[in-house]
Q: What sequence folds into this?
């Protein structure tokens, strides 16, 4: 029982450093505040304990004192707020060229699909020092992808994509938990994030490769007959999908939306909700005809059409790029 | 939704002190102000109670405006308008009943109370007819729901998404159903008020139960004043 | 103070207890004091049910493997523990027991504005309690006390409808109590009892009532929608039909965050009274403490989505709610500083109520400060839905609300029962509760940051040591809570008869007989003194208004 | 409630009644016109004026002796506004929907 008894979580991602710094700052500030209050109580309780014949001195209060201990805490709180917001904003803006991993949460297991094609259950093998972006959805209830070592947690909602990203800095195996209560085996829905040196990662990568996800998506795109309307030239009955990912799209009712993963997913499963300007609403819904993995494959294919580097070539080592102000994907 | 406390608080007076004064109030003035103050606070809770529904309605209307327009078009706005008029008339008769009590005109008071209840029943009748139409058209959410091939107003070539239309009907039935339930409770209160009025319990000095009942009825009318445009008239222009 | 004092029967004075006997005199009473006792008995019953579930949870977590109960049973245990404790103990505890008993007496009134509605409120609570007990005994519910959709509406096959309706009904009991208090405080104050002479206990209940009145209906309609969706498959929160599960969370937390202020504000009122009495001093900055209660009530409604930072709300909404969450922390900090300043140059006695007040000060400060951790967006992403959050809200609810409740019970017990509780045992119990509490919940902060998620039935081995410490603490805490019940019951029979004002405290409620008569005051009192006039009481300049009950 | 000294003449009751009926017809008629996004705004304005008429005259808020009733009404509407506004803070900034 005593062999492995951590009092501090492993620090294995860039975000971990920022969160820990803020955490330690807050411990110090609240520690001082607690000390201040406790010593005041103890001193007053001892010094002014009841003695026969000594009466309490009535003090009405003092406005300046009240103002000071309202403004100072407010000031300290604002510092904490801003610092927390910066760390949060950084953790919610994935770098533009991060590797995509599609996550499908299902009652009590995690199914992960790499952009390069590998499929894994309850485990994720990634190379160290690479930005990885998770595009997650759930098949049933709300789950939550939580990796304590990366200080990262993001709820996974049914019916839409939520995204999260991290940049692993230390090789090793780290816990993966489901953090949103999801039923009987909620505590069994755990797994491992295996961060490997690039060499080991290549070895692991080569085995059992069914080709990149976008290739499967392309095959599916043809099989389902999407190509008949969405042609590469502009004569098709549907809008061309070349270079559409990430760009703004003008809708029929005048709204302009960014064609992110959620837009593509919604256009596949609920085409009626957003009609591109100048096109007729003839696209049938594919709700129920394609499962989550297939939708992920189609999304990966559409992204590959616009040159978004969904597919990381093996050799290119992505330097830890500064978090470019990527398009805001909720 | 136990509205009985609205009646319980209109304290039927025990016959200890002066007929109308309860033992723990200093003066009658204090008791009447307390009752109406309590009723207004209760109406505040009702506003927040319906408020949760209005927020849900607002968000889904923004998300699925076209489907909501198609679904709303399938409801007979004429019936809705007549229902609004019926409720407004019932509010008038409530006020006349209170006025009748204030000037000790027994015939006016009792007549107005009866008229109010007739209007209430008329409202529920019209509401019943509306629900019957919805049942026949299979627009009730659940297994029997079907909303195929209904064009979105303004975009004749585009069909409403049945799943989103079902959310409109879910909200429609919950909101109007809850309102109808409040109308039924209101009728119960007014039956009780009619009995007390019939026994001559109300005098120009003491008719607090009438005023409290009136407040509740007017509130139910105000809720309907908002429900009518929001549910019936989403996208009616040609 | 010897333990085995002979049975002492006080000189027979007529009071609200011996005025009439028989079941009907209790079950049909409209006397706010008797209704308070009815509430005391019923919420203590539910407290021990919730406590029993808590002990089972802690026993299960002794070992990493799930070996005491099955997974489903464990899920039902923490759900039932949450629902029973929140809706059937914490929310009614101080308002329905101490508030009902004391507010009319503190403002010089014979009773609450609507005594019959007060009784109706208790009956609604009992109906809800019976529905909840039936739900527990015939299968229970496993959705967590938060009922998150779409699990609660589409995937759970337990008695969600029954639990939802039970909480719906208990919500109305809370609304009626709030309504009664607001009208009473506005309309029924004795002559001379101006707003700035109101005891802070009454101020904090006024703020609590505002939240009860304006917050509870929203969870009532949310539960109606959940029940309707389960029974009629409406699809309002079901993503398969286009519904939004986050809408449920918005509506649920719109009430449930202010609900935590319903739980803590009354305890703040109790602590203000206790600290003033046992330091023999006027509260420091009376107006600031009173207004900070109102500020907490109003700001409490602006912050709810800090429970949802990682749930999928937009980044900008998260920024807005994080900023607002810091605004609600300021009034709480002001209160703590004012209480501490009240001790300065006081004449402090260490009776049991004062020990609970010190315990409250310490634990509430730590609970409040860890709230700052959770409001900081960066840290919340890591610690939400872990044991850090569990430890935070237990520090506030168990450390704050429950210590305040026990302190209040000890402080006003002579007035309620006409008997003195054994002082020695009471101080011991206060110490045991304080130590047991810290041993139970402080390790959970560390567990939370290390990454143990909430509601886990089995966990990786590395978390075991801290869990064992927490379970050990839980048993000490359990004993600490049993002691007061034992010696309170004991004191009803064997306790020394209490004088009318054993603590020589300020406040109108202490100028009635112990236990008071049914109508509290023989003739309506006229208030000519300021609140907390301990200087006048101690120096005896002002001859106390001798109002024989 | 309304002070007994100042009795409400019937004229104001019937006046408000007529106004409410006209308001209802107006709501129904205006819905027929295509005002684009302003349809909803106009409908809500008419509904709010009707609600105010009922509250001020029929529910005797206008002549009420104490200010307290108005405070209750205004604070209720304020808290409803908080629910709507802060929920919209989330829904309005979720780009994809």
A:
């Amino acid at each position: 029982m005593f062999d492995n008894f951590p009092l501090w979580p492993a620090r294995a991602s860039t975000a971990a450093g920022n969160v820990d710094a803020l955490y330690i700052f807050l411990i110090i500030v609240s520690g001082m505040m607690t000390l201040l209050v406790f010593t005041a109580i103890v001193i007053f309780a001892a010094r002014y304990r009841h003695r026969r014949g000594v009466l309490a001195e009535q003090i009405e209060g003092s406005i300046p004192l009240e103002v000071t201990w309202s403004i100072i805490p407010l000031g300290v709180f604002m510092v904490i707020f801003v610092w927390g917001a910066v760390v949060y904003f950084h953790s919610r803006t994935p770098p533009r060229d991060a590797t995509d991993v599609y996550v499908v949460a299902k009652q009590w297991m995690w199914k992960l699909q790499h952009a390069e094609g590998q499929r894994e259950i309850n485990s994720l093998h990634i190379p160290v020092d690479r930005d990885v972006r998770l595009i997650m959805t759930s098949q049933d209830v709300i789950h939550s992808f939580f990796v304590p070592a990366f200080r990262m947690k993001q709820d996974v909602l049914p019916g839409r994509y939520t995204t999260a990203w991290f940049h692993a800095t230390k090789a090793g195996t780290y816990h993966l938990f489901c953090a949103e209560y999801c039923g009987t085996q909620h505590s069994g829905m755990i797994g491992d994030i295996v961060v490997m040196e690039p060499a080991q990662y290549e070895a692991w990568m080569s085995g059992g490769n069914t080709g990149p996800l976008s290739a499967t998506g392309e095959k599916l795109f043809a099989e389902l007959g999407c190509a008949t309307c969405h042609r590469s030239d502009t004569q098709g009955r549907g809008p061309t999908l070349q270079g559409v990912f990430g760009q703004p799209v003008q809708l029929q009712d005048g709204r302009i939306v960014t064609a992110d993963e959620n837009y593509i997913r919604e256009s596949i499963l609920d085409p009626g909700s957003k009609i591109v300007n100048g096109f007729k609403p003839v696209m049938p819904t594919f709700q129920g005809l394609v499962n989550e993995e297939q939708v992920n494959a189609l999304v990966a294919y559409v992204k590959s059409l616009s040159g978004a580097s969904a597919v990381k070539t093996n050799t290119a080592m992505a330097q830890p790029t500064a978090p470019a102000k990527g398009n805001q994907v909720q | 939704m136990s509205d009985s406390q609205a009646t319980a608080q209109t304290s039927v007076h025990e016959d200890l002190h002066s007929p109308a004064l309860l033992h723990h109030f200093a003066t009658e003035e204090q008791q009447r102000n307390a009752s109406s103050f309590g009723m207004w606070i209760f109406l505040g809770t009702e506003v927040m109670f319906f408020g949760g529904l209005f927020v849900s309605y607002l968000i889904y209307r923004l998300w699925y405006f076209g489907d909501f327009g198609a679904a709303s078009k399938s409801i007979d706005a004429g019936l809705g308008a007549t229902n609004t008029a019926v409720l407004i008339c019932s509010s008038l008769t409530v006020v006349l009943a209170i006025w009748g009590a204030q000037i000790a005109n027994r015939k006016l008071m009792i007549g107005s109370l009866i008229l109010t209840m007739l209007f209430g029943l008329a409202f529920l009748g019209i509401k019943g007819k509306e629900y019957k139409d919805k049942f026949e058209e299979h627009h009730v959410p659940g297994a029997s729901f079907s909303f195929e091939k209904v064009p979105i107003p303004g975009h004749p070539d585009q069909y409403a998404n049945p799943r989103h239309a079902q959310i409109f009907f879910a909200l429609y039935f919950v909101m109007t159903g809850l309102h109808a339930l409040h109308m039924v409770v209101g009728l119960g209160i007014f039956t009780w008020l009619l009995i007390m009025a019939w026994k001559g319990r109300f005098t120009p000095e003491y008719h607090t139960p009438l005023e409290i009942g009136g407040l509740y009825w007017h509130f139910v009318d105000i809720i309907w004043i908002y429900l009518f445009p929001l549910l019936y008239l989403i996208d009616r222009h040609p | 103070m010897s333990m085995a004092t002979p049975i002492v029967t006080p000189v027979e004075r007529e009071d609200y207890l011996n005025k009439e006997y028989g079941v009907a005199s209790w079950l049909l009473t409209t006397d706010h004091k008797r209704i308070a006792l009815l509430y005391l008995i019923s919420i203590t019953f539910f407290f021990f049910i919730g406590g029993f579930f808590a002990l089972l949870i802690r026993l299960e977590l002794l070992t990493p493997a799930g070996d005491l109960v099955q997974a489903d049973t464990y899920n039902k245990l923490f759900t039932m523990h949450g629902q029973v404790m929140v809706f059937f103990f914490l929310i009614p505890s101080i308002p329905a027991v101490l508030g009902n008993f004391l507010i009319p007496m503190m403002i010089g009134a014979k009773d609450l504005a609507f005594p019959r509605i007060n009784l109706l409120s208790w009956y609604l609570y009992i109906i809800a309690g019976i529905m909840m007990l039936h739900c527990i005994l015939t299968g229970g519910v496993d959705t967590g006390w938060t009922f998150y959709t779409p699990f609660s509406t589409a995937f759970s096959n337990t008695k969600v409808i029954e639990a939802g309706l039970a909480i719906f009904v208990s919500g109305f009991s809370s609304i009626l109590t709030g309504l009664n208090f607001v009208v009473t405080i506005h309309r029924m104050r004795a002559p001379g009892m101006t707003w700035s002479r109101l005891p802070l206990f009454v101020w904090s209940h006024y703020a609590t009532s505002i939240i009860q009145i304006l917050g509870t209906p929203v969870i009532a309609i949310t539960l109606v929608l959940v029940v309707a969706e389960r029974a009629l498959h409406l699809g309002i929160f079901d993503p398969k039909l286009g519904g939004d599960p986050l809408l449920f969370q918005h509506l649920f937390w719109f009430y449930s965050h202010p609900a935590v202020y319903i739980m803590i504000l009354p305890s703040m009122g109790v602590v203000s009274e206790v600290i003033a009495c046992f330091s023999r001093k006027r509260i420091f900055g009376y107006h600031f403490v009173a207004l900070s209660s109102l500020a907490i009530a109003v700001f409490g409604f602006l912050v709810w989505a800090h429970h949802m930072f990682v749930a999928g709300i937009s980044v900008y909404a998260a920024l807005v709610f994080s900023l607002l969450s810091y605004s609600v922390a300021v009034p709480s900090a002001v209160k703590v500083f004012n209480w501490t300043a009240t001790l300065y140059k006081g004449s402090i006695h260490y009776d049991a109520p004062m020990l609970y007040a010190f315990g409250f000060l310490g634990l509430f400060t730590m609970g409040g400060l860890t709230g700052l951790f959770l409001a900081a967006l960066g840290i919340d992403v890591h610690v939400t839905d872990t044991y850090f959050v569990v430890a935070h809200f237990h520090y506030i609810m168990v450390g704050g609300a429950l210590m305040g409740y026990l302190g209040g019970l000890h402080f006003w017990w002579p007035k309620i029962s006409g008997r003195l509780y054994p002082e020695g045992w009471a101080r011991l119990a206060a110490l045991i509760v304080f130590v047991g509490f810290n041993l139970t919940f402080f390790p959970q902060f560390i567990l939370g940051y290390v990454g143990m998620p909430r509601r886990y039935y089995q966990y990786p081995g590395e978390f075991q040591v801290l869990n064992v410490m927490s379970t050990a603490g839980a048993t000490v805490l359990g004993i600490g809570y049993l002691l007061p019940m034992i010696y309170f019951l004991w004191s009803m029979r064997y306790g020394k008869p209490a004088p009318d004002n054993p603590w020589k405290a300020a406040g109108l409620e202490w100028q009635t007989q112990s236990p008071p008569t049914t109508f509290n005051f023989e003739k309506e009192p006229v208030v000519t003194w300021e609140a907390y006039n301990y200087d006048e009481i101690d120096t005896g300049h002002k001859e106390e208004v001798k109002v024989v009950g | 409630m309304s002070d007994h000294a100042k009795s409400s003449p019937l004229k104001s009751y019937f006046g408000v009644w007529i106004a409410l009926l006209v308001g209802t017809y107006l709501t129904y008629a205006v819905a027929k016109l295509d005002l684009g996004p302003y349809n909803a705004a106009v409908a809500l304005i008419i509904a709010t004026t009707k609600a105010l008429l009922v509250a001020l005259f029929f529910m005797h808020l206008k002549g009420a002796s104490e200010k307290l009733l108005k405070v209750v009404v205004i604070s209720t509407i304020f808290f409803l506004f908080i629910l709507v506004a802060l929920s919209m803070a989330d829904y309005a900034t979720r780009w994809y929907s």
Observations:
- Chain D has two domains: 1-65, 66-97.
